[in-house]
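Progress against Task 2.4 (sequence-to-structure conversion) is shown through the following example record, which the project officer requested during the mid-term review.
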Amino acid sequence: VQLQASGGGLVQTGGSLRLSCVFSGSSFGYDAIGWFRQAPGKEREGVSCITGEHGSPYYAESVQGRFSISRDNAGNTVFLQMNNLKPEDTAVYFCGVLSGWDTCPVYEYNYRGQGTQVTVSS
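Structure tokens generated for the chain above:
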């Protein structure tokens, strides 16, 4: 299993970004995939998740109403649309999966992609 995240960048407050997580492996569609973020000096936070079988989304309270997660099963890709970004959203974002786990939220992972930096300027 391999995951690769992309789409980060520098935006101003109120701007938008769309992150992508490409999943390589036979279990895509069976495992929930989570998006996490980690800012310097802060604990890792699970911000969103989508289940494999039903595509049910989950959002942390901190991003509820601003972020939207979706999946393209044909492309083995999970997207995280981030709108109305705030400076506190600045972090390294990465996707992760816990093999055999198809429930959201995902708290732990045994596979994760490299991070993509999101920076929101005030």
